[in-house]
Amino acid sequence: MVEHTTALETRVRQLEAAHRRHHLALAAVVAIVVLFVLAPPLLRRSVSAEAYVLRADGADRAALTVSDEGTPALALYDGDGHVRLNLSMRDDGSPDITLSDAAGRIRAAMRVSPSGIPYLFFTNQAGDIRAALGVPSDGLPSLVLLSESGDVRYMTP
Predict the structure, then answer these.
(1) Structural domain harbouring 31
(2) Which residue in 5, 70, 130, 133 could disulfide with 120, CB within 3.0 to 4.6 Å?
């Protein structure tokens, strides 16, 4: 009789374990079905805002904005809150990248004109252009170096 009881207990434990496995499998199947039904609409949603600002230690470190004219810009800030790098689109649709010094003054800029001509500018601390490199529509590189008074010191033909 004891052997028969032990065999029954073993069989009941096996059936209960199989029952738990079936319940877990069913729960997994239901979760997967729910995920496939509900996830696509959630993934198609977008987040909208007038600006996205990333902060660290209470200070702005980056900002993605759109101007009133609809042109996008990405600004990266240093620890003192000065914009050090700005990537933007101009009103005419041409791209613009500026690099600024620790005081927030633009010291270098790279632009592509609306007609597709690339330019690279370097400025002094006052913001005056002192060197410019470009490739005009003729395809020949152009280099211009300016004096402190703004006179041409050197220019490639």
Answers:
(1) 1-45
(2) 133
